[in-house]
Amino acid sequence: MSVENKGICNADMPVHDTGTGNVLSRRLNKILETRIENDKETLEALKELSTFFTENTLQARRNLRSKIEKRSLVINEDFLSAFRDVKEVLDAIYSDVSEMNNSVQKMISRLQATKTQTHHLIDQTTKLQAESQTLSLQKEVAGAFLRSFQLSPAEQAVLRGSSRECAITDEFFTVLDRVQSIHSNGRMLMQSGHQTAALEIMEQMALYQEAALERLYRWTQSRCRNIESPETSILLSMAMSRLQGRPVLFRYVLDEYRTSRRSVLVTAFIDALTQGGPGGTPKPIEMHGHDPKRYVGDMLAWLHQAIPSEKDNLLILLKGCDKTDVSDQILQTLSHITEGVCHPLKVRVERMLAVDTDATVLYSVTNLVCFYKQVIGQVVPGSQLLTTLEELQELSQHTFLLALQSQVRQQLSECVETPPSDLSPSPGVSQLLNLLRDVLSVGCIAEGRQQDLPQIVSIIVEPLLQAINESATRLPTSDMAVYLLNCLYQMQSTLSLYEFVDELLERLQAQSDAQLDTLTSEQASSLVANLNLGSIYTILQEQGKGALSSVPGMEPTGLKNFLSKLDAFLVMQDVLLLPQICLLLSGTHRSIVQHRAFEVIAAIYRQLYEAVHDPENLYQNPGVLMPRSPDQVLKLLIG
Amino acid sequence: MSAGPYNYSYIFKYIIIGDMGVGKSCLLHQFTEKKFMADCPHTIGVEFGTRIIEVSGQKIKLQIWDTAGQERFRAVTRSYYRGAAGALMVYDITRRSTYNHLSSWLTDTRNLTNPSTVIFLIGNKCDLDAQRDVTYEEAKQFADENGLMFVEASAKTGENVEEAFLETAKKIYQSIQDGRLDLNAAESGVQHKPSQPGRNTLVNDQQVNKDTCAC
Ligand SMILES: Nc1nc2c(ncn2[C@@H]2O[C@H](COP(=O)(O)OP(=O)(O)OP(=O)(O)O)[C@@H](O)[C@H]2O)c(=O)[nH]1
Ligand SMILES: [Mg+2]
């Protein structure tokens, strides 16, 4: 077919100014130029052609054209019938579409109607939506309000506890604090105008708080016996800090606490007394029951050392209490806690304080008790323990003084009666002075104890002095003086170590001086007698008119008797000393007596010397009679 | 647990002993206050100081009893050895007499404390080297012979003061770890957690046993 079309086309080509030959050649060229192998249409046409143009005969070539036309016709007829079918189908579709169109038209009009109807509805919905938004906002606000001003059921459960015995936990305090803060926020709420709500909230919170604190109080009261347990102790401190706003509850808990600590302390004290440390070290304190100093000292030191721990515990328990000053409470509680040990302590110390105990030991105990009274008085002033210690101190002091007096009495009666022959202080004196030394050597460990010392000294020294004086009166004068001087000397040397006995020392010194005078005059009289100076001295004193050399006893020969004795005496002075002088314990006393007695002799010598050298007395060669000047004699005698 | 009100797990009791004037109170003051007291009055009887330290990650409260060196207080101070976990025995390196008295102090200490009590010898005033009257070597030998820990220190400069107190605590802590020190017993000088001056609770005891088993 296409070949045919082409042929037709070519044949219809208009020929203008070119010749037939030209047309022909052009056609030829064209044919020649045709690339059949590339022209699909031509190839297709040729292929089709070969299906019915089977024999290349003349006949066939002649019929070709009509044959092709016939075939073309058949094809066109086929096409026509096929197309008819198509057209029919399309017609059917067309009618369907028109019908649809009708329906759609109807639907549109219906929709239009609906739309006008819905418009109103939409308006309404929009309004409702806006309303819903407002409401949900309000809901959120209300929720937030509730969250900040109300307790959640969970929180309420924490506060209430599942049962009475239910333990308090950290959470409890969180919620309790929240209740408190809600309550105080309520005030703000009130200020911002929401009075009713605020009041209601505050009232409600107050109720919660009351119930919670009540529960906390019960719990705390039952747990405060376990302050050592670290788990509860944290909670206990927190509990106390919450309870401080309820003074009554607070006090009840403290009461419970101190009662329990009090018995713990007593138990521990008794254990230390009777059981001691691990494996018996340290030994139980009562092992020292035979040694009152140690026993009492250990008990008191134990108590002194127990108090800081109690104080620590208490400080920890109350460390959260910042609203009020708890230092008073601490003191009161501490003093109550230590009250329990008072009785066991007192009983034991009292047992040590028997009158027949050694006075020195009793004095040590008194000192110890006094020391601890001061120490413990600083830690727990005004406590029962302090009162107990004061009572014990008084008792101890009293017992000590009684024991001292009785010990003094006993020793006096035993030993002071007759002075020994060597006139040394009798053993009783030494013993009593030793007692004094022992007592005073205890050393004052407590402040302000110095004032007792004069009393102690006088308890020993006064009866001693009296006894010495009594026993001395039985002796001859010189012996008495020496004995007293020896006793006084011993007392003085003992007492001079102490500063507080000045007055007594003065008295002793005065007594010594009196005895020294007595002894000096005894010695001087003895010297005067031994040197035959008696009459000379008397005459010199009475010297009247007339030359002395002519007075009987004063003539040179009479004087020579004395002067030769004096010469011997100057060489060997000791010979004429009273034997008792050597018995003086004190070298000072000895030399004082000697000095003073010799001074008496030297003075008489001087008087005689001056009289002899006085021309009125008509002595011849006074320088020969008395060659030694008074000063030389004095020097020889006294050195 | 460290957040609790007891920010310590043990209390150790110490005593400080030695002749008067050797610087016991100054050592204590230096340790607790980190200051030197130039004119410190003689101690009357006993004084008391505390400080919390740390040993092997454990907080320990030291309860320190400073005794008077004056002879007249001996009757009082003797009672404080009882149940001490540590005893610091002090002499003055510039005064030989204070060194010479050590053996009598040591006798007292041994008689009045537990066998487990840690005794630490301190030669104080080592800042006064020019006035030295006791050599380091002889004191060291004395310490070694008697099984004491020893250091020369100065309460004035603070030298070795901290060390003496801490080393003593370490040794005590070691004794606890080794189970040589029975915490359950009263008056061991150590308390596990603050407690009454006596018993510790059973819980603590078990804890300690556990500790010891784990080693
Ligand atoms: N240079 C120097 N002086 C010191 C040192 N330690 C103490 N002192 C001085 O020594 C004196 C006595 O010190 P204290 O601490 O009171 O002595 P103590 O051992 O407590 O004495 P008592 O309480 O009587 O037993 C004080 O004057 C201190 O200033 C030191 O390390 N160096
Ligand atoms: Mg001191």
From TrEMBL, chain A:
The keyword Transport applies. It comes from the Eukaryota. InterPro entries: COG6 (IPR010490), COG6_C (IPR048369), COG6_N (IPR048368). SMART domains: COG6 (SM01087). Its main location: Golgi. It is found in: Golgi apparatus membrane. Residues 195-637 form the Conserved Oligomeric Golgi complex subunit 6 C-terminal domain. Residues 49-161 form the Conserved oligomeric complex COG6 N-terminal domain. It is a peripheral membrane protein. Keywords: Golgi apparatus, Membrane, Protein transport, Transport. Pfam families: COG6_C (PF20653), COG6_N (PF06419). GO terms for cellular component: Golgi membrane; Golgi transport complex. One of its GO terms (biological process) is intra-Golgi vesicle-mediated transport. PANTHER family: COMPONENT OF OLIGOMERIC GOLGI COMPLEX 6, CONSERVED OLIGOMERIC GOLGI COMPLEX SUBUNIT 6. Required for normal Golgi function. Belongs to the COG6 family. Component of the conserved oligomeric Golgi complex which is composed of eight different subunits and is required for normal Golgi morphology and localization. This is Conserved oligomeric Golgi complex subunit 6. It comes from Zootermopsis nevadensis.
From TrEMBL, chain B:
The keyword Membrane applies. It is an enzyme of class 3 (hydrolase). GO terms for cellular component: cytosol; early endosome membrane; phagocytic vesicle; recycling endosome; trans-Golgi network. InterPro entries: P-loop_NTPase, Rab14, Rab_GTPases_membrane_traffic, Small_GTP-bd, Small_GTPase. Pfam families: Ras. Its EC number is 3.6.5.2. Keywords: Acetylation, Cytoplasmic vesicle, Endosome, Golgi apparatus, GTP-binding, Hydrolase, Lipoprotein, Membrane, Methylation, Nucleotide-binding, Prenylation, Protein transport, Transport. This is Ras-related protein Rab-14. It comes from Zootermopsis nevadensis (Dampwood termite). It is a lipid-anchor. One of its GO terms (biological process) is defense response to bacterium.
